[in-house]
Amino acid sequence: MEKRVIVALDFNSSDAALHLVDSLDASLCRLKIGKELFTACGPELLKQIQDRGFEIFLDLKFHDIPNTVAKAAKVVGDMGVWMFNVHASGGHAMMEAAREALLEFEQGRPKLIAVTVLTSLAQEDLNQIGFERTPEEQVSKLAFLTRDAGLDGVVCSAAETGLLRAQLPKDFCLVTPGIRRAEDAAGDQKRVLGPADAVRSGSNFLVVGRPITQADSPNEALKEFNSAIAGVS
């Protein structure tokens, strides 16, 4: 079975993270480690989770000068993660440098994707930081820039996947956070969609946090998400 659900480990301690990890079935999902948990616990926790059989999406969103990001990409490659990301707004040269830093990893090369527009940003937020394009237009522009830099795909909201899937190659990966069922609170996500609708629109992987991690039975909630997208294409 293709593991399309990525569970976000949004915790600030190894005890809390491992308590959740030990309640999940590694055959049903991959896991995302972001800035909070990685800053608190570092590579040691990442290795402990990998030793439990989980593949890791390291969500640190690198955004710096090309040389710095390239060096960081090589370190991440040595960690053996499944996937990591950079900010597409760092530009073509930065993304290309990150990709080239991974060329030495012939076996087990991590997927490299780029963040387009954060799902917490709506039109007024983009206007405040000087972007006049709509979220859809900005996502599309950055996705094409990412493709041209040779990366594997992008992070985008599920609201944009239909547009991108129609414009970009079939093997270009679309990773979508902000996935919520009808009964789930949106939280700080502003551009959200349900799991089946997201896959139908073209999402390859769905990042899910609180609807699973804060459920009474996280593994049962994970199974519900998997059931919702089973057979959907």
Question: TL;DR of this structure?
Answer:
The protein is α/β, with parallel strands linked by helices and 233 residues long.
Largest sheet, in brief, is: 8 strands, parallel, barrel
CATH architecture grouping: Alpha-Beta Barrel
**What is the total domain count?**
1
Number of helices: 10
Principal-axis shape equals globular
Distance between the termini: 14 Å
Strand pairing plus helix content: what structural class?
A: alpha/beta
CATH superfamily: Aldolase class I
What's the multimeric state? Answer: single chain
Rounded Rg:
17 Å
Q: Based on DSSP secondary structure assignment, what is the total number of beta strands?
A: 8
Global mean pLDDT: 92
Query: Which H/E pattern describes the elements?
Result: EHEHEHEHEHHEHEHEHH
Major sheet: arrangement of strands: 1-2-3-4-5-6-7-8
- Provide the CATH topology: TIM Barrel
Residue ranges: pLDDT <50 for 5 or more in a row?
Answer: none
Tell me the strand percentage band. Answer: 15-25%
CATH C-level class is Alpha Beta
How are the secondary structure elements laid out?
Blueprint: E1 5-8, H1 14-21, E2 30-34, H2 35-51, E3 56-62, H3 66-79, E4 83-87, H4 92-101, E5 111-115, H5 123-128, H6 135-148, E6 153-155, H7 161-167, E7 173-176, H8 195-201, E8 205-208, H9 210-213, H10 218-229
Helix pairs in contact: 1-2, 3-4
